[in-house]
Design goal:
CATH architecture of the largest domain: Sandwich
Shape: globular
Strand content: 15-25%
Distance between the termini: 46 Å
Number of domains: 3
CATH topology of the largest domain: Jelly Rolls
Number of strands: 32
Amino acid sequence: MKIRNLYHKIAVMAAVGAVVSLTPACSDDVADDAYYTFTGQTVASYCGDNPELYSTFYNLIEETGNYSLLSTYGHYTCFAPDNAAFDEYFTSIGKTYDQLTHDEKREIVYNHVIKSGAIDFTSDRFEEGALSEATMSDNYIVISYKTDDAGGGLTIYVNKDVPIIERDIEVHNGVVHHVGAVIRPTKEFIGDIILNEEVVGDRSYKIFAKALEMTHLADSLKKTYDENYKCPVEDPAGLTTLGAWTVKVPTVKRYGFTLFAEPDDVMAAAGINSIDDLVAYAGRYYTNGNPDYTSRDNALNKFVAYHILDRQMSTNSLLYSGRATAPNSARDRVEFYETMYEFHIIKVNVGIAINRSEKNRNDYIGLDEGRSNLSAINGYIHSLTSMLVYDTDRMENDVLNCRIRFDMFNVPPELTNNNIRWQLLTIPSPAVGYTIPHDFCSKHLTFSKETEIMMWGSDYWDVHQADELKLNGWYDFTLRMIPVPPGSYEVRVGYRPESWRGIAQFFIDGEIQGIPRDLRITASDPQVGFVPDTGGPQDAENDKAMRNHGFMKAPASMWSNHDNCTLRDIKGSPPLRIIIGTVNFQEYGAHYLRAKNVYAADREYNGDYIELIPTSLIDTEDIY
C-alpha cells in the first residue's frame, strides 16, 4: 500500500478501515495492493502532482477548463487513465493528442468523472452492474470482476475491458481510481449493438438479431431523450420550491431500455438453429393474429417484445438492495415489470431469477451475469441462459399466481430512466426531493393541477424500499397499476397513518370502492384492532379481526432502521395496509387505482406500495 502523505497518517488509517470490503462475493479476493489512501489533495491537484502517471489526463483537465471544477468542494469520482493508456488510445484512433478537438478533449474528461450530489464511489460501493449515477458525459459506468490468471485474485473492470489498477485514492473532494485504459462509452443504440456486431461480448446472437430486425422492434429502441420536454423552471439545476421545501425538477427527460437476449447456443439447446425455427417456436406460445412480423399481433413480434423493458436497468438495479428489507427475507425480494409485450409482465427474484416458479424454486430463467450488462447509449443487454417466453398456462397458474406487491415508484418507467427511483438519497443539497410536471409520466401516473407532488426517500422512514411519493393539497391522482393476468384480486395499499394524511376516496377502474377512508386513524384505534404480535396463535386471530375491519398489519419483510425491527413489529403507531376492495379483471389490460382527497386542502397522501393478491390465496397468505 502506497502512502503519499504522512501528514495525514490518521486519515490514512481511517480510510483503510473504510475500504476493506467489496460485495460479499468479491471482498476477500481483490488484491489489497490495489488500494491507495487519503492524500488531502483534490482530484485536479492529485493528477497534476503525479505527472509520471497522469500528465496526459491532467493536460486534458486543464485545457478543457475543468481544473477549477475538479478543485472545488464536492463529491467527484474520477477514473484516471495513466499515460500508457493514452498512448494505446491514440494509436487505436489514429490521432495524436494535438489532433483532438476541444470537444473531443472535454468528452474524454467527462467520460471519466462522476459528479455526485452526495456520495463518492469508493470501491466498497461497487457491485456487479452499473454505478447508480452517470458520468458528466451522461453515461453509466459498469463494474465487473474477472479472475487474474497470474495470481488467481480478482481484478475490477470498468465497462468490461478497462482494468482498475489502483483504487480508492481518497482526495479532498472525492476519490480517484487509477485505470489502465481510456474509457470509451459506446454511441450505439441498444438494438444496434445486437444487429451490428457478429459477436457481442463473447457470444453470438445472430438468430435473436434477425428476429429483432424482422419485427422492426429495434426501431423502437433508438430513443435517448424526449426532444419536446422543457424543464418548467428557469434554474439551470432544476431547483424550485414546493411549500417549505426545495425540490428538483428533472432538467431533461431520458428514455432507456433493457433487452434480454438468448445467444445462439441457448437457442440451439432449445432446438432453434435458424430464424424459421424461432418463428415456429414463437407460434407455440403466442397467438399469431397477423402474419406481418412488424405487427404487435404477430407471434414473433410478441416473442421479441416480451424480452424488452422500457427502462434502463443493469443487473444490480433489477431488484431493490437497500436497507429497508428485513435481514432474513432476501428470498422475498421480488419485482414485477411490464414488458413491451403490452400488459404482460416478468417477475424477477433474488439471484436474478426471471419468472421463478412458485411451486419449484429451481424452475426459472437465469442470467449469465458475467456476459450481461452490455451497455449501449440508452440501455443494457443481458444474456439469458434459457428461453424466455410468456407461457400463459405456467404464468397464470404458477409464476404469477402469487401476491403481486409493487412500489408506486416501480410503475412509471420515467422514474427509473431519470434516476429518481432508489436514488433520492443522493440528491444534492439544498434539494430534499423531486417534483415532476403533470405530463412527465402521463401514461402511468396522472394527477390534477391542484395536486402537489413530491418524491423523496429516507432509509429511516418506515416505507417500502425507502421511497415515498407524497401527494399534497386537494390531490386527485390516478396510477396505472402493474398489469396482472385475468382473475379475481383483492387490492390493498400500504401507508403509515399520520395526523396530516386526511381522508381519501378510492376508485378502481373508475368504480368507487366503498366509503372514504380516514388515513389518520392509527393502529391503536379500536376501528383498526391492532394487537402486537406475541408469537402465538393469537397473532393469526388478530390478523383475521383486523381484516374484518378492512386493515392489515404491514409485511414482516420490510425493515425499519428507525425502530430496528420489521414494519409489522413496530410498536405504538406502525404502518398499515388498507383493503380497498375485491375486483374481477376479465382480460389482460390496463387497470387504474385512483385516490381523491375529500377532506381538506392541507392534507397529504402517503404513496408507498400496492398489493394485488388472487382471492384464492388470501386464506393461506404468509405474513411477509
